[in-house]
Amino acid sequence: MARHLTFTDDEIVGRARAVFLERGYAARTKEIAAAVGLTWGAIALRFGAKRELFRRAMLDPDPGSGAADCTGGVADLRALLEQVRAELCQQWPRRLHYRLATQGDLTDEGWRRLAERLGSTLQAHAACGAVRADISGAELAQLVLDLLVGDVARRYLRREAASHHDPRLIERVLRLVEAREPAGVA
Q1: Packed helices 73-102 and 168-177: angle between N→C axes, nearest 10 degrees
Q2: Given phi > 0 = left and psi -120 to 50 = alpha, else beta, which region is 37?
Q3: Which of 15, 23, 44, 133 might form a disulfide with 27, Cβ 3.0–4.6 angstroms?
Q4: What's the angle, vertex CA 87, arms to CA 82 and CA 89, rounded to 5?
Q5: What is the average pLDDT value for the chain, to the nearest integer?
Q6: Residues 110 and 143 occupy one common structural domain
Q7: How far is CA 24 from the centre of its chain?
Q8: Can you name the residues that pair with 131 across neighbouring β-strands?
């Protein structure tokens, strides 16, 4: 007797995501079903319409929260920027596909939380003197996110592997955000 395979919603969404990333919303239900390993009817029973599966596949999970402290100094900040960049490499293509398919405004809590997490961490580093304090943490976070998203978008549009990136970008961003000695101070 054949064993009946069951898939979690997350497994179905993950497999469908790969098809949506390659084909966009134009992906056929037959292609999605083949990639998932279920019939479209079985998928539709769980998610309803293709639009709901697409929405779930393309909107990202909660990025979590980071502790806003500066005890590790620049090393922690470098690690945070690398982590944010890695999250953006995963999230940005999904967001782009979602926005193109829905032609709507994408108000997403995930982006807001990511910006807030980065902003609070940068603010904590500013309070410790490790990050420039002439710009608010929120404004600095937005600038950093814009730079990182630009790099991720450029690489995505060139179809470069997300893992292949120039480590000098993070070094440049660190130089941009690090605290500077006031002019005339020795």
Answers
A1: 110
A2: left
A3: 23
A4: 95
A5: 79
A6: yes
A7: 18
A8: 178
Q: Token digits for 116? A: 């807030």
Partners of 178 in the β-ladder: 131
* Predicted pLDDT at 31: 94
Q: Does 101 fall in a domain?
A: yes
The whole-angstrom separation of Cα 101 and Cα 26 is 8
Q: Is the dihedral of CA 25, 26, 29, 34 positive or negative?
A: negative
End-to-end CA distance of the chain: 81
Task: Give per-residue pLDDT as tens, 100-115.
Answer: 777 655 556 667 778 8
State residue 146 phi and psi, 5-degree precision: -60, -45
Q: How many domains does one find in the chain?
A: 2
* Calpha distance 177→51 (Å, rounded): 40
